[in-house]
Design brief:
Shape: globular
Radius of gyration: 21 Å
Number of strands: 21
Length: 422
């Protein structure tokens, strides 16, 4: 048994310092502390998750292989507006990943990609990629609270995450505007004050404002398109930190038009989603023959085959095969998020299965999540999220949960520190 496995199996060892965590949370202000206490009672897990150096290296190898495939030039996807019923393959190139804006070439990289893994005795398994992964600011706060508590191992994170995050947004802006000043950011989500992670929006706002950048937290309905850009009232918006879950922006025509016309820098954008996070991309990444046709190296194909559970697009003519093999499969909608509409095959009824066949789904070979003992012989499942920018891991966090998927409703569960040992 590895040191990581031994620690994960011991619910009484290496528990967080709750006093240190509470002190750090209260330091953000009493109103913020009250908000997070009342709205998010199961936000932070009581124990860290431990991983080995080998597991970390395996995750890095999968991420790097994905990045090489996506950036090789032949990984061409349809325009984000077309994401829906089309079958993946040789699709029309999108013109929105790069172009001219304000007289300058730009290609925003997309902030806070989330590469989500399940770890088990068979290795590491990339179950999905998100391009608007939440939680990075909250996990940075958790990590900071435990720096001097003597936990085993090393945190898996870049040093000075506040600077790392700030530099990331400034780099996004630099891609678009050169040396022009980034003076105003809008954090955009539907009814932001009602969102579960609204406390994180406030953390981000304070970070940017300490750096002299004005920040508005707004619903997309507050955005107004004008000839010279996008506004909230009389305030012109330079950059939008996009937290919307309508990844194609079809419900927000003013925002979509402004982005298409380079009237605002949007990160992450529909183009990032189409290239990475549409679940059909997982089918392409596990299709060895298709990857060979794209010119992907044998070494990268081997990494992807070993590191991503086999995934394929659900089609009605596969009904008999899918039903007979359902217990080994997990079903996900193309454009799902937060586990909405996702089903373990062994939990499916015939009715729901019939609906899946007529909808836009992929089926993925089931990869069991890891487990972390919490106390008194009880264990919770966990997944690992690598927060990635420009192909590099900024921070690694876990989510502990009970049930089918991560949910932030499990006592003792929530975001967890990740420590590398051995």
């Amino acid at each position: 048994m590895s040191e990581a496995d031994r620690l994960n199996a011991d619910g009484r060892a290496a528990r967080l310092s709750q006093a240190a965590l509470q002190q750090t949370l209260r330091a953000q202000g009493e109103s913020w502390y009250d908000l997070i206490t009342n709205r998010c009672p199961h936000l932070y897990a009581e124990v860290p998750v431990f991983i080995s150096a080998q597991q970390l290296q395996q995750m890095r190898a999968v991420i790097e292989a994905v990045e090489r495939v996506v950036h090789a030039g032949k990984w061409i996807v349809e325009h984000p507006q077309g994401v829906g019923r089309a079958v993946p393959g040789a699709l029309a190139p999108t013109a929105t990943l790069s172009g001219e804006w304000g007289g300058r070439k730009h290609s925003a990289k997309g902030v806070f990609y989330g590469y989500d893994f399940h770890l088990n005795s068979e290795g590491v398994h990339l179950i999905e990629i998100n391009t608007n992964a939440g939680g990075a600011f909250l996990n940075a706060l958790l990590l900071d609270s435990q720096r001097d508590t003597g936990l085993p191992g090393e945190a898996v994170a870049e040093s000075d995450l506040e600077k790392v995050f700030l530099d990331m947004f400034r780099n996004e802006w630099r891609q678009a505007a050169g040396e022009a000043t980034l003076d105003c950011i809008a954090i955009v989500d539907e009814q932001p004050e009602q969102q579960y992670l609204y406390p994180e929006f406030l953390l981000a706002q304070r970070l940017f404002e300490r750096a002299g950048i004005k920040v508005l937290i707004v619903d997309p309905a507050a955005l107004q398109a004008r000839d010279n850009g996008l506004y909230v009232g009389e305030q012109k918006i330079a950059l939008i930190y996009n937290r919307l879950t309508d990844f194609s922006l079809q419900r927000y025509p003013a925002l979509l038009h402004a982005w298409q016309e380079k009237g605002v820098l949007l990160t992450p954008s529909p183009a990032h989603y189409a290239r990475y996070a549409d679940k059909r991309n997982l089918a392409r990444l596990t299709d060895a023959e298709g990857l060979r046709e794209l010119g992907v190296s044998a070494a990268d194909i081997a990494i992807l085959q070993a590191g991503i559970p086999h995934t394929f697009v659900v089609q009605p003519d596969l009904e008999n095969t899918l039903w007979s093999e359902r217990r080994q499969l997990f079903f996900k909608p193309y454009s799902g998020y937060g586990s909405k509409g996702a089903y373990r095959g062994d939990k499916l009824t015939r009715r729901v299965f019939g609906e899946i066949l007529q909808s836009d789904y992929v089926a993925q070979k089931l990869a069991a999540p890891g487990e972390r003992s919490v106390i008194d012989g009880a264990s919770l499942k966990y997944d690992l999220r690598c927060y990635v920018y420009d192909g590099k891991i900024q921070l690694l966090a876990a989510r502990l949960y009970q049930g089918q998927t991560t949910n932030f409703r499990t006592p003792g569960g929530g975001f967890a520190l990740v420590r590398e040992v051995g």
